[in-house]
Amino acid sequence: MQNRVTNLFGIQYPIVQGGMVWCSGWKLASAVSNNGGLGLLGAGSMHLETLQDHIRKVKLATNKPFGVNVPLLYPQIEEIMEIIVAEKVPIVFTSAGSPKKWTGWLKGKGILVAHVIASSYFAGKCEEAGVDALVAEGFEAGGHNGREETTTMNLIPSVRKSSNLPLIGAGGIGSGKSMLAAMALGAEGVQIGSRFAITKESSAHEEFKKLVVGLEEGGTKLSLKQLAPVRLIKNEFFNLVEEAEKSGASPEQLIALLGKGRAKKGMFEGDLREGELEIGQVSAQIEDIPSVEEVMNRIITEYNQLKEEIVSGANFSF
User: Fold this and answer.
1) What would the DSSP string read from start to end of 195-212?
2) How far apart are CA 259 and CA 275, in angstroms?
3) Looking at the structure, do residues 135 and 177 belong to the same domain, yes or no?
4) What is the DSSP letter of 53?
5) In whole angstroms, what is the distance from residue 278 CA to residue 214 CA?
6) What is the 3-state composition of the chain as percent helix, strand, coil, each rounded to the nearest 5?
7) Positive or negative, the Cα torsion across 171, 176, 178, 181?
8) N or C: which end of the chain has fewer CB within 10 A?
9) How far is CA 44 from CA 18, 144, 261, 280, 312, in A?
10) CA 100/CA 111 separation, integer angstroms
11) Is there a single domain that holds both residue 118 and residue 247?
C-alpha cells in the first residue's frame, strides 16, 4: 500500500493517528507507529516538561517514524518548537493557525511538516508556506473544527482540485470502508482520531471511553462557534453552552463558562457531566475498546477486501 504519503513519512500504511488532546500520549502514538501507521503526540494538552517526557518515551517504545501535532494558536509555541527540535522529532503536524510562521523554520531543521485545513482556500496558503502534505479535515471530525462546516466527502475533492500536495483525508473516518471512500475521492492517506481515542492505549479516561461506546447517531454537535467551533458530546456542560448561546452570550461570557481545564476534566479525568467531551460523528459506529493492533488490522483487512471486491466486480454491500 505504498504511495506518496507512505513514502514521505516512511510508514507501511497511509494511516495517521490524530494528535488529540488528552488522548494522544506516548502509549497511543508508539502503538500506532509500531503497527505500521504514523503515531502523533497531542502537544495541545501537554505542559512543556510533559511533552518532552512523552517524546522521549515514544523514542524508547518505537524505532518507527512518529510526530507531534501542534495547535499553532496555543501559548508557549516557541518553547514547544524548541523542544521538538532539541528532541529531534522527525515530523510535525500543525493546526489551528497559519502555517507560514513556522513551516520554513521547521523545514530548515530537517523536519517534515503537514498542516490541517478545513477549506480548499487554505490549500494554496499551505503551498506558499512550503508544507510537505495537507490534511483535509471535514465537518464530521471531533474536537476543534472548521467554521465552513464542509463535510469530508466534499472537502477532499475540493482540496485535491486546488493542490497537488500529498493529501490526507480526515473527519468521520474510522474503518476500511471509509478509508477507501476517502482514497477514491482523491486522498492518499487518512488521519483517524476518534477510533484511536477509544482504544486500550489511549490516555483518555476509561469512563469517557465507555460513554463513547454507548453513543448513538446524533450524540455529538458542533458548539462554541463564537470562539473556536468544537464538536462535543451532549452532556450537562454542552447544555449550558447551548443555553448560553441561545440567550445571546458574548464571547467573553462563553470563555468564562468554559473556564480552565474543562477538556482535561472531561476526557482525562472522567467527569462526564461537567467536562468538555470531544469526539467525532464516527463515534456512533464505535462499539468496543480494542487495542491499536486490532484497530489497524480491522481497517487494513476491510480496506483490502472491499477494494478487491470492487476491482473484481463482485457483489458487495455497505
Assistant:
1) HHHTSTT--S-HHHHHHH
2) 11
3) yes
4) H
5) 15
6) 45, 15, 40
7) positive
8) C
9) 12, 11, 12, 18, 45
10) 15
11) no
